[in-house]
């Protein structure tokens, strides 16, 4: 999603409706940022034995592979024709989420846009691997939901903010996207009820405000005096009330119960329960808070 050069957005494709929906979403983002797309189809390694033994001869397997390649090329052609976005095709086999993350690094992609639900058989790729892709990827992953409305520019971005230093790292992406779309960043934070912690929260909020001010990005501050549910539930409720076009979260910051393979509870709830709003998931940098931003 950089604007200063031709970058590439990776889009996993499994031919399901949600994957196609995510692809067209990605194409419109790429068009706005003058980026390219890389369409990736992965054959899950657990399906390889049956896939390769189909018809018990190489001709059948080669025919199936050729059919997938042709379908991918047709999708790429459709995207280029409709949106004027250059699209390349990549087909691989392996563990789905690892292959997606590795391909993003290999191709130098700056983001991944994928659907959150899949279906059965060859359409199973997207949904079951979304959270693991998010946790393994070195770049932000935008999760597009099956119930998403037609693409809308990222004009209203919800930006939940907690006490952790990592939570503020996403401000660089808020600045980058906010500038590109002339967005309003809706900062959402909350009162803890402890004087020291509330002062710490306020200090972090002031830091984010300063960075947004310095970059001339419009924002509004929303402080929850009390919460009737979890912060994830309040975030989703606020996003709906704000008619949000994008929800920007860290995958680790708002919840510390993080394993090698699964994203934390807060992020998992947001990704799973957000029915319409695309969710941008950003892994924290080990270097801590950075004020640099792409573009």
Short description:
41% of the residues lie in helices and 20% in strands. The chain has 295 residues and is of the alpha/beta class.
Give a short account of the largest sheet. Answer: 10 strands, mixed
How many domains make up the coordinates?
A: 2
Order of helical and strand elements? EHEHHEHEHEEHEHEHEHE
Look up the CATH topology of the largest domain. Answer: Rossmann fold
Q: What is the level 1 CATH name of the largest domain?
A: Alpha Beta
Q: What is the arithmetic mean of pLDDT?
A: 82
Low-confidence stretches: 118-127, 253-262, 287-295
What is the overall shape?
elongated
**CATH homologous superfamily of the largest domain - what is it?**
HUPs
Q: Report the structural category.
A: alpha/beta
Describe this protein's structure:
By secondary structure, the chain is α/β, with parallel strands linked by helices. The chain folds into two domains: 8-144, HUPs (Rossmann fold, 3-Layer(aba) Sandwich); 156-282, Rossmann fold (3-Layer(aba) Sandwich). It is built from nine helices and ten strands. A ten-stranded mixed beta sheet has the order 3-2-1-4-5-10-9-6-7-8, with helices on both faces. Strand 4 (111-115), helix 5 and strand 5 (141-144) form a beta-alpha-beta unit. Helix 4 (96-106) crosses helix 5 and helix 8 (231-241) packs parallel to helix 9. The relative contact order is 0.15. Residues 118-127, 253-262 and 287-295 have low confidence and may be disordered.
């Amino acid at each position: 999603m950089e604007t200063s050069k031709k970058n590439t957005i990776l889009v996993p494709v499994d031919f399901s409706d949600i994957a196609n929906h995510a692809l067209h979403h990605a194409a419109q983002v790429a068009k706005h940022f003058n980026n390219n797309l890389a369409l990736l189809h992965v054959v899950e390694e657990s399906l390889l034995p049956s896939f390769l033994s189909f018809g018990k001869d190489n001709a059948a397997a080669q025919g199936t592979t050729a059919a997938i390649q042709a379908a991918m090329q047709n999708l790429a052609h459709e995207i280029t024709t409709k949106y004027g976005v250059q699209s390349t095709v990549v087909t691989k086999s392996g563990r789905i989420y690892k292959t997606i993350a590795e391909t993003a690094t290999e191709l130098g992609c700056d983001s991944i846009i994928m659907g959150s639900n899949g279906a059965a058989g060859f359409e199973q790729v997207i949904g079951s691997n979304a959270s693991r892709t998010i946790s393994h990827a070195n770049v932000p992953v935008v999760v597009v939901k099956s119930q998403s409305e037609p693409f809308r520019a990222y004009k209203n971005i919800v930006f939940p903010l907690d006490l952790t230093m990592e939570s503020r790292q996403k401000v660089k992406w808020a600045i980058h996207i906010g500038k590109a779309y002339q967005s309003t960043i809706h900062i959402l934070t909350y009162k803890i009820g402890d004087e020291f912690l509330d002062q710490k929260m306020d200090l972090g909020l002031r830091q984010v405000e300063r960075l947004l001010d310095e970059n001339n990005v419009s924002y509004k501050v929303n402080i929850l005096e009390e919460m009737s549910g979890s912060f994830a539930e309040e975030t989703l409720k606020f996003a709906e009330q704000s008619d949000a076009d994008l929800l920007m979260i860290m995958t680790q910051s708002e919840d510390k119960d993080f394993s090698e393979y699964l994203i934390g509870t807060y992020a998992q709830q947001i990704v799973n329960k957000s029915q319409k709003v695309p969710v941008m998931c950003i892994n924290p940098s080990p270097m801590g808070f950075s004020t640099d931003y792409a573009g």
